[in-house]
Amino acid sequence: MKIRKPVPHLLGWKLFLSHILIVVVGSLVLVVTSRIQAPNAFLHHMEHMRILLGPDNAMAEDLRRNFLAASNEILLISGVVASVAAVLASSFIAWRIVSPIRSLMEASKRIADGNYSDRIQTKWNDELGELALSFNQMAEILEGTERRRTELIGNLAHELKTPLTGIRSMMEGLIDGVLSPDTETFLDVQRETSRLQRLTEELSQLSKAEAGIIQLDLEQTNPAELIRRTVSRLESQFEDKGVQLVVEVSHNLPHIRMDSERVLQILINLLGNALQYTNQGGVVRLKCSLLNSHLRFSIQDTGIGIAPEHLPHLFDRFYRVDSSRARAHGGSGIGLTIAIHLARAHGGTITADSRGPGFGSTFTLTLPIDSDS
């Protein structure tokens, strides 16, 4: 870790000196102006006094000297008072501006050191207050990301440990002769290794998606055929769980340019989530239709629903509404993140909607008909 050199506090002095400079310039302008204008004004008034008092050069000269002395004295006193007032005002203004900036600087150092729970008290109703509010929002996002990252490490450790423990136990059983080397035992090993493979593939896809290096193999695709492939992949799982799958596809849908395998991956993820969170006897509807110049896939279920506070975070990486339930079903919390990145790579998007717990949820994938846009 780099050791930060202490930064000299120069901003306050710069603000202080800038105000002093303004007072000095104003004072100089006042002095120069009075030096130029005062004699002319004095002579103008003396002409009127000569008419009243008569010609008296000695008195006129004495009045001129007294006038200039009084003017200099007034300017000197005004300059001193103005300088003192400038020093006080500059000190207060400099403190008023530098203090919150210094608080921001200190808080940013603490966050850089990993203290993501640090916040700034927003006591200012101006641009600095808005800056502090934005800083706190940034810190909150970083804290949430760090919390999900920590949870992910624990979840991945659990996900990796479970199949590895199972494989090890079966291998030890085979070595000790406790388990017979039959087809069922080897299928159990295969299922656990497939689970490990799925985790590594998801992590690889997530890193590529967030780096923006997803490669798309675009080709003209029939949406109805894509729906058929999606249903065929999951139909047996719906039957085993006792959840009804209803498919509604509009007629005469146009072929659109897409990476059919990537979009198939998105639909399987969304439909699989709907199945996972819908209890036996429930219904999941998969619809495909045109909306303006977009193709819309809608997956609506009668499952457990989603609380409003969770909706904005569903597509955040590592975010899971119910960690224990997701873990029990083998969810890693990155499927929806991968899905929305794939949708954006096609120029589309995914939205989620739910009236709340117990009212089911609806996920909508929208793709432009012209994917090049």
From TrEMBL:
Boundaries of each Histidine kinase domain copy? 155-371
Q: Which GO terms describe its cellular component?
A: plasma membrane
Keywords of the record: Kinase, Membrane, Phosphoprotein, Transferase, Transmembrane, Transmembrane helix
Q: Which CDD domains match?
A: HAMP, HATPase_EvgS-ArcB-TorS-like, HisKA
Q: Which Gene3D superfamilies match?
A: 1.10.287.130, 6.10.340.10, Histidine kinase-like ATPase, C-terminal domain (3.30.565.10)
Q: According to its UniProt record, where is this protein mainly located?
A: membrane
Q: What is its EC number?
A: 2.7.13.3
**What GO molecular function annotations does the UniProt record carry, in alphabetical order?**
histidine phosphotransfer kinase activity; phosphorelay sensor kinase activity
Give, as one word, the top-level EC class. transferase
* The HAMP domain, residue ranges: 95-147
Pfam families under this entry? Answer: HAMP (PF00672), HATPase_c (PF02518), HisKA (PF00512)
Reactions accelerated catalytically: ATP + protein L-histidine = ADP + protein N-phospho-L-histidine
Where are the membrane-spanning stretches? 12-33, 74-95
User: Where found?
Assistant: Membrane
What name does UniProt use for this protein?
A: histidine kinase
The taxonomic lineage of its organism, from the top, reads: Bacteria, Pseudomonadati, Spirochaetota, Spirochaetia, Spirochaetales
